Amino acid sequence: MPIGKSWIELNRSTSEYFDGVERFIDYAFTHNRFGDSKIFCLCAKCNNRYRRVRSEVQEHLVCKGMKQGYTTWHCHGVNEESDDESEIDSEPHDSQNDDMRN
């Protein structure tokens, strides 16, 4: 099932933002490549550098917001060769960031 990303730009106090965080976290933990209880935290402060448990990621996304421009979730179950990307990344993303990853 595709995960929309429109919630990313919403005010963090809205129910739509909370719902988006929950859907994202569910997806990320389902597709966790390490198979454990932590994922990279994509909040503005952690910036995909630290792996955290579900409750910490949720708290960080609600309190600190999501990393700006992170719309291709390559650290959270989506890679460029994956068929899933077309379902998940339905919005345009910055191709300059793609060049930096290669």
From TrEMBL:
Any Pfam family matching the protein: Transpos_assoc
Stored InterPro entries: Transpos_assoc
Domain Transposase-associated residue range list: 5-77
Stretch list, region Disordered: 80-102
Basic and acidic residues bias locations: 90-102
Bias (Acidic residues): 80-89
Protein's name according to its UniProt entry: Transposase-associated domain-containing protein
